[in-house]
Amino acid sequence: MFHTRHTDKEHRTEVEQADVSHTAHDKEHRIEVEQADVSHTAHRQRTSYRGRTNRCFTHGTLTKNIVPRYKNHPLYVLRKDLLKFEAIYPPDAPTLGFIRGHEVFARECVKNLHSRETWVKEAKVVRLGEKPYKIVKARPKYDRMTGIVIKDLPLEVFGEWQVEDYIPPPAVDGKVPRNAYGNVELFKPCMLPKGTVHLQINGLNRVAKKLNIDCAPAVVGFDFHCGGSHPTYDGFVVCEEFVDILLDAWNQELEESEKRRQDKHDKRVYGNWRRLIKGLLIRERLQARYSFERQEDSSKGKLKVKKRKIKRSIPSFAWRETGKPFRKNSSFNTPDQDSNLDLPINSGLVYCESSALDFAAIEVG
């Protein structure tokens, strides 16, 4: 009996040891499988695009709408999807594969191209002897001389590997270097000509013209409106030796302009008061001469004249209906003239002080 119990105990111990070893073996197997999956995933990521494309062709997973997916793709690009001012650089860039007869390139090989004028705005110029990397159609241009819109003009574009930094020319003998249009192209601070200063002051050219000092407007950009491109100006460029003279003359001109403005304002105020006083004097003089009172009729808005009788003298040649003449010095009242007491009077002349007073109050206020 004791021997049997001992045998069962040993058997259970062996079973437990076998289970532990089997569990450890399973754990090691799972770790090996996970490592194999990780290495397989890394291997798939390192595989070239050509290999993936070939596998797709082998398994038949490519569909008809796979080509449009390359447009605006962040990693790959087709030559047919390049924009007007884009190109593949270098020219012998390796292809990553083919898709339905189209070469597939890496997106990092796509470079932007610009014309000579656009590169100048970035403070760059095309090196001498460089040939255009690409020729495209320019925008329609309006010819002011003939009034015709010219289309399909060729435009040469260059890449960033074909340009160099812009070196501004120096000022000589107090003259500011200009372009063909008489301006200084100042799209970047580094484009300022040597020996000159950029003064952002409006109207400085008038002072420079009076002093016979060379001064050129600065073009800092272009604004597109009214169907065309128009330059944007900001200040003027002058030589360094004339800066102090121009600033002193500008301050003096500013003071004189302020004085002229104040004199003009005072003259206008005094003129308004003069018209007001004249209107009051005219009113008093007319009131003393014709003895009228200003009474406004609420219904008609007319001025009423003070009631009084007007005597008229009868001429010596007047005759009665009976044939007897009137007396020479006789006088009579004219009821027809006295009956209409609401005679209209032109208030614009007599009471002109009201409008003058309002006008003066506005100017003074």
From TrEMBL:
Gene Ontology CC annotation, any one: XPC complex
Pfam families: BHD_1, BHD_3
Matches recorded under InterPro entries: BHD_2 (IPR018327), DNA_repair_Rad4 (IPR004583), Rad4_beta-hairpin_dom1 (IPR018326), Rad4_beta-hairpin_dom3 (IPR018328), Rad4_BHD3_sf (IPR042488)
Protein's cellular compartments: Nucleus
GO MF annotations in UniProt: damaged DNA binding; single-stranded DNA binding
GO BP terms in the entry: mismatch repair; nucleotide-excision repair
Residue ranges, compositional bias (Basic and acidic residues): 1-15
UniProt keyword annotations, A-Z: DNA damage, DNA repair, Nucleus
Domain Rad4 beta-hairpin intervals: 63-111, 113-169, 176-250
Main location per the UniProt record: nucleus
Stretches the record annotates as Disordered: 1-28
Coiled-coil intervals, chain numbering: none
Membership in a protein family: Belongs to the XPC family.
Name of this protein: DNA repair protein
Species name: Timema tahoe
